[in-house]
Design a protein that fits this description.
By secondary structure, the protein is of the alpha/beta class. Helices cover about 50% and strands about 10% of the residues. The strands form three sheets. A four-stranded parallel β-sheet has the order 2-1-3-4. Strands 5-6 form a two-stranded parallel sheet. Strands 7-8 form a two-stranded parallel ribbon.
Length: about 375
């Protein structure tokens, strides 16, 4: 009996020992499994983070490839028409404010890093161009590079020294040299808004022939960076080109039939348009000034307008009409708006009004003033 009890005790001890060993082994296994599970989770987190980083990088790259900039409204409008739904087009300057003298902030320049391409007018219009080039890695495309530029005169133009005897044909306006420049930098007060764009008249876009050439530069560049959609960009360009060609043909015929070729404008922005259609702009301000004309200039223009029986004084659309109305009242004329296209109204933006439509409106307004 005692032997049996001893054997039972020993057997029970062996069982308990085996259970203890199994428990330890199981604990070790569970611990190892937990460590492996944690390791897998950590690896998964790292892979997920790496995937997110890659996704963010790819997204940023896609954004850079999908966004293009234009310097101001007319270039923006043409680029938007040509790019269509293939690119997001942004304007570097505010589309609804004056473009002359714009000075970008460091933040605005830094925002260009979301793109690799910007279209500018060129001809000295973008005074901030060098600052951008020195700060941001972006391809800046000059759309007026092939345009026959008008040189800006560095000397003041004095109406009193100008011979207005048109019958003697001494009134030779060489638009190529842009001699009709009213630079009143040395004149009276009121010319705070004077900007220096360089040696050329920057207002190339106001001539539809130039606008067509600038649109072609945009279409060619987009076709270069996105060759898969070349036919799309060229088709959009051809639509613009045809509309502009039709406008030029229509108004060249119209202007041939008017005797008076002179029109009064707020500042000397219409040299390219005047050259194209054999007209003559009479500016109240210089090429780069957007301030008020001084009394001397107003007197000279008034005398000229009376002699030439000019019946319209244009003021800049979106700007003050006070000066134009004062002069118009004096000479028995009307004050009417004309569009420099340097910025747009809310209505023009919301209705997606095109560059072509605005150009035609300008030409019709000038034609009405001459006929």
């Amino acid at each position: 009996m005692k032997v049996k009890n001893i054997i039972a005790v020993l057997a029970l001890s062996a069982v308990l020992a085996a259970c203890g060993n199994n428990a330890q082994e199981n604990a070790k296994t569970d611990s190892n499994d937990a460590k492996e599970e944690m390791s897998v989770k950590e690896d998964s987190k790292e892979e997920a983070k790496s995937g997110e980083d890659k996704k963010d990088s790819d997204s940023q790259k896609a954004n850079e490839e999908n966004v293009i900039y234009a310097s101001f409204f007319p270039i923006y409008n043409l680029a938007k028409q040509i790019a269509g739904d293939k690119f997001e087009v942004k304007s570097f300057t505010n589309l609804k404010t004056e473009s002359h003298g714009f000075e970008p902030s460091a933040k605005e320049i830094a925002e260009l890093s979301t793109s690799k391409l910007m279209f500018v007018n060129g001809a000295g219009m973008e005074e901030w161009e060098e600052a951008v080039k020195n700060t941001v890695d972006i391809d800046i495309v000059n759309t007026s590079e092939g345009v026959d530029l008008i040189k800006a005169s560095e000397e003041d133009h004095d109406h009193e020294d100008h011979d207005h005897d048109h019958e003697d044909a001494d009134h030779d306006h060489d638009h190529e040299d842009n001699d009709h420049d009213h630079d009143h930098e040395d004149g009276e007060e009121g010319h705070e808004h004077h900007h220096h764009h360089g040696e050329f008249d920057p207002h190339t876009w106001l001539n539809p022939v130039n606008g067509k050439a600038q649109a072609k530069v945009i279409a060619d560049k987009l076709s270069e960076v996105d060759p898969a959609n070349k036919d799309y960009y060229m088709a959009n360009y051809e639509k613009i080109a045809k509309e502009l060609d039709d406008i030029v043909t229509e108004y060249k015929d119209k202007f041939k039939n008017v005797d008076n070729k002179k029109f009064i404008v707020p500042h000397q922005a219409f040299g390219y348009l005047a050259r194209e259609f054999d007209l003559e702009q009479i500016p109240l301000n210089s090429l780069t000034s957007t301030g008020e004309a001084d009394a001397k200039v107003l007197k000279e223009v008034s005398d000229l307008a009376k002699a030439e029986k000019i019946k319209t004084v244009f003021y800049e659309m979106g700007g003050s009409d006070k000066e134009a109305k004062t002069l118009a009242d004096e000479i028995g004329a009307e004050a009417k708006p004309i569009n420099t296209l340097e910025f747009a109204t809310d209505e023009e933006l919301s209705s997606n009004k095109t560059y072509q439509e605005m150009i035609k409106e300008n030409l019709e307004a000038i034609y009405d003033s001459l006929s």
